[in-house]
Amino acid sequence: MITLFAEQYAPPRWRDGGMRREEEKAGVCGPQALFNATYDYKEMLHNSTFCLVPRGRRLGSFRFLEALQAACVPVMLSNGWELPFSEIIDWNTAAVIGDERLLLQIPTTVHSIHQDKILSLRQQTQFLWEAYFSSVEKIVLTTLEIIQDRVLEHSSRSPLMWNSHPGGLFVLPQYSGHLGDFPFYYATLGIRPYAKFTAVIHAVSPLVSQSQPILKLLLAVAKSQYCAQIVVLWNCDKPLPAKHRWPATSVPVIVIEGENKVMSSRFLPYETIVTDAVLSLDEDTVLSTTEVDFAFTVWQSFPERIVGYPARSHFWDSNKERWGYTSKWTNDYSMVLTGAAIYHRYYHYLYTKFIPTSLKNMVDQLANCEDILMNFLVSAVTKLPPIKVTQKKQYKETMMGQSSRASRWADPDHFAQRQTCMNKFASWFGGMPLVHSQMRLDPVLFKDQVSILRKKYRDIERL
Question: Active-site residue 371, yes or no?
């Protein structure tokens, strides 16, 4: 279906029916009244595949942006019009550039486009709309980032960064100018992330006993064949423990003090982290070496996502008209908490540089919600849910048995704070970026009635 948009036939007020009511009161007749009485403009727009965008009364046309928003491929009929952000956007992947002097040839041109190409064009319109045009803020930020790339040409973003997901605003050239350093381009480049991870254990309790969970966790993680090093982030008010207090391991254990001892410091882009993958852990997390290995192998196939164990979900509370947070164990989830999760180290940099100070200050003041904020960020960037991997049956009960964690879960203020956080975060992101999923990844042959010795991750099945 082809829709014709001209400036004089579809004023902005038609979107809410205002113009129609005004014309009915005034008894207006003619092309405008006839068009409005016959067609629902918004419905027609969203049901169209191609939208003709002829020149309007001025240099630009909001019809062009309306077409992008509706995933309708713009067919440009305005010779000499410079498309917005054409310096960095390849409009040939999202629009059809026609010649206004050859209007009668347009139907033949669009009908000759293959269905696969049409799908690609429509997908690109949605990406470009969401990435650069869906708000005034994004338009302004895109303008500023283009100027920055002009000034700092040596560190400017490549055309692929601007024209493919997640877009130039989420790919910060200050982090790296090499595509292979970002988790979004591995498939495009035909490469895989480095086959090792750095474990970052967030410590907030003093080390007083050799039987504390953090030491058991450290030993289990150190035995992983994929572990390159372990970083203990000391966010405890007590002084750093002596070196001999930490167990001997086959991998380096580096203990560093958290900046200002605040929650957000666990997501700082520490130079110590040299691997692509970060295994983020709370000090009281209970994981076996087998579970760590399996989670990492899953992450290697999904390097742009959060992959891990403790899952949570959000929901819309229609009575309170606000977002809610739940920790109920169900088949549905939208978050994987960073108390036991793997993600790409770039998200540390993005969290630090992209998230506004006001949200990070909120997290630090509450000493809560940093895991939710990281999930918001990754889902906003990827438009995808995290991935939950399977665990031993005893994991839930064992984890709940830890006194510090159990006390937080039983505290009603803890959940109230997290619901408040979710609504604050959703307000800043301009909507709810979290995506629900029911996918859980299990090891091959998990639960199969075969010899336990044939199973690669056999310890996961054992209680």
Answer: yes
